[in-house]
Amino acid sequence: MTQTSKLNSLWEYANPKKFLSTTERFLPGLWIVTALCLAVGLIWGFFFTGDDYKQGSTVKIIYLHVPAALMAINAWLMMLVTSLIWVVRRHHVSALAARAAAPVGAVFTLIALVTGAIWGQPMWGTWWEWDPRLTSFLILFLFYLGYIALWEAIEDPDTAADLTSVLCLVGSVFAILSRYAVNFWNQGLHQGASVFRAGAVTGTDTAEKVSNIYFYPLLICMIGFVLLFVALVFYRTGTEIRARRIKALQARERMSA
Amino acid sequence: MIALLTRDLRLALRAGGGFGLGLAFFLILTVLVPFSVGPQSALLAVIAPGVLWLGALLACLLSLDRLLALDWEDGTLDLLATAPLPLESVVTIKALAHWLTTGLPLVLVAPVLGILLNLPTPGYVWLVVSLLVGTPALSVIGTFGAALTVGLKRGGLLLSLLVLPMYVPTLIFGAEVARRGAEGMATSTPLLLLAGITAAVIALLPFASAAVLRVNLR
Amino acid sequence: MTLTVSDLTIARGGVPVLEGLNLTLAPGQALVIRGPNGIGKTTLLRTIAGLQPAVSGSVQGAEETIAYAGHSDGLKPTLTVTENLTFWASVFGLGSIQPALDAFDLNELAARHAGNLSAGQKRRLGLARLLVTGRPIWVLDEPTVSLDTRAVQMFADAVRAHLGQGGSAMIATHIDLGLEAQVLDVGPFRAKLPALDDFDGGFL
To answer: How is B132-158 classified by DSSP, letter by letter?
Structure first.
């Protein structure tokens, strides 16, 4: 009994008006907590941890690189879930949340790529390495671009929501496929080297390898990025809802004229 | 279904159908490669499998925006959607027709272009095999992209943006088969993976294409 | 096959255009849909043909029974008249296209490419397609556009013959076809706009 009522109350937020009034209430607080988390994590990370004995101060780019990479993937996952909710339950807010998340996810992917390049330059002596992880992120970025472009290209909002949902679904499968294909492809080219690089330099498994003085500020940064993503998506979803409302009102105007 | 296939083939072969454009594009692209990288035959031999795969892929892409858009513009898709043929078969047949008019000729002409790029002798068989196994996937994935963008006025560029990332796995495994074949290495692993992708794509993607087409028709 | 539409609400671009629509179309009946431009006649016919979903309400008896003809005829300019018709005949599983050629006086044009036909001739070919579908319910959106008086007469005769064989037809048109048809003016069914204060998933 309580379970069903809880579920019902969750779906209530699918009403755009309810969504707007609720997010307006807690967004300011969320912004503050996000800013605090990022400030603490980044300042602690940049100024109060020692340099790595091998990498020097370059190691500190980890505080941007790893959280951005984490959110690059999770943003796509979130889009996948909200797209499915739209397909199954036809909640407009869900589709708009997916739309709102895409540019944020794309920017996080771009941050992960650029910081990766900046980190890679002193470490590997090159700005770009066709390392499986970097390559997969590049492909993910292309999927983001396609997804955003499709939203922009289609005029009718419901059609756009349907088409982008299917694209997100199919794209996810192909992104995973590409991940494995890229792994296969690069090992085919540089035997062994990629394993070392993938494990030691990029990705989340770094967190286990770095010592605790790096780990805690990194954790705070990661939480900060998650909160930043949530805040941005809520904020942008609100904007999308208002834009849709304007569009609907304009359509209504045309009809009564 | 056979009626749809024969109609599509006939349309492609008649004047203005665009048959052969893909082949000509493939030829020109291959001819341009030595101009851009230099005429050293050793270098060309190394890059030949990859270049030929990329050329075939781009030639496939070239004709995709006509694949469904023409039937959309003249109302044929509306009528097909109300016909007893399920849209899933329609998109499958469309993909098959695209492959027969674009993919298959590319496969057949690829060895000839291989000569131009100084492809090593053992590579010819594997180039043809890999293209034969891989190009159907290109057509089916392309049909999905065409179905997504069918309602758009200038969907061609967007179509490329959507389809090309999805071509990555096929390109990787296909070119790997051709490359390993040319270097005389074992090809069975990438070939099996390539065949797996093609089979999965043919089995599953038409449902997505049909769903997307239904959305675009309403 | 009787077509029953009950309490249908349809939308165009997310905005409801017609609501509360009820109608039945029994075998042998013809129904002419009237209404000002932009009211939603095309949307209604497309919804009934199953090309787009209804907002609410139901359409019964429409599966595999409807032959739809919209604004464009689905003709391929590089195929001949015969080839165009034969294609649709085989899609719908019917053999002979001769009755269709006869009904719309297309025999002399049979070997011509559809691209070389005049607008009116193309339209005749598009309407001839209805005869090779073998479907009992015709749903036609402005079928007489660019037809001359003689061709309109041909079309009216074809509809009459179709009704005589137990078929039915729903036609959105503004000209008088001389058919024994009911007329439905969809004007009164124009959807009322919802109140402005509280908006829901439709953003209205």
So the answer is: HHHHHHHHHHHHHHHHHTTT-TT-HHH
CA B70 to CA A189: how far, in whole Å?
Answer: 43
User: Where residue C48 sits, what CATH number does that domain have?
Assistant: 3.40.50.300
Q: pLDDT digits over C7-40, tens only?
A: 888 888 777 888 888 888 888 888 898 888 888 8
Q: Torsions phi, psi of B63, nearest 5?
A: -95, 5
Contact C140, C172 (CB under 8 A): yes
A92 in contact with chain C, both atoms CB, cutoff 8 A: yes
Average pLDDT over chain A reads 81
Instruction: Show Cβ contacts of residue B108 under 8 Å, excluding neighbours closer than 6 positions.
Output: none
Residues whose CB falls within 8 Å of the CB of residue A36, separated by 6 or more in sequence, listed in order: none
Q: What does the pLDDT read at residue A118?
A: 85
Q: What is the residue whose two structure tokens read 């001839």? A: C128
Of A15, A157, A256, the CB nearest to C193: A256
| Residue B115: partners with Cβ closer than 8 Å, 6 or more residues away | none
Domains present along chain A, CATH in parentheses: 29-256 (1.20.120)
Q: Token digits for B11?
A: 């349309």
Neighbours, chain B (3 or more CB pairs < 8 A):
A, C
For A189-224, b/e burial (b = at least 16 CB within 10 A) is eeeeebeebbeebbeeebeeeeeeebbebbebbbbb
**Candidates A149, A154, A174; nearest CB to B166:** A174
Query: pLDDT per residue over B139-184, tens digit each?
Result: 999 999 999 999 888 788 899 999 999 999 999 999 999 999 888 8
Q: Across residues A149-162, what is the average pLDDT?
A: 90
Residue contact A184–B148, C-beta within 8 A: no
pLDDT tens track for A165-208: 999 999 999 999 998 888 888 764 433 333 333 344 444 444 44
Residue C16 lies in a domain: no
Please spell the DSSP secondary structure of B10-38, one letter per residue: HHHHSTTS-TTHHHHHHHHHHHHHHHHH-
Establish if C46 belongs to a structural domain.
Answer: yes
Please tell me which of the candidates C13, C193, C203 has its beta carbon nearest to residue A244: C203
Q: Do B78 and C52 touch (CB under 8 A)?
A: no
Which residues lie below 8 Å from residue B27, measured CB to CB, with a gap of 6+?
A: B109, B113
pLDDT at A1: 37
Residue C194 lies in a domain: no
Contact list in A for residue B161 (CB cut-off 8 A) is: 142, 145-146, 149
- What is d(CA A202, CA A220) in angstroms, rounded to the nearest whole number? 18
The confidence score (pLDDT) of residue A103 equals 95
Task: Measure CB to CB from residue B162 to each of A146, A178, A182 and give the nearest one.
Answer: A146
Q: B194 in contact with A at a CB cutoff of 8 Å?
A: no
For range B34-42, the mean pLDDT: 90
Contact B168 A174 (CB under 8 A): yes
How close, in Å, is residue C78 to chain B by CA atoms? 7
Classify residue C113: in a domain, yes or no: yes
Percent above pLDDT 70 for chain C = 95
pTM over 0.90: no
Range of the domain at C62: 26-189
The total number of structural domains in chain C stands at 1
Domains of chain B by residue range: 2-217
* A22 confidence band (pLDDT: 50, 70, 90): confident
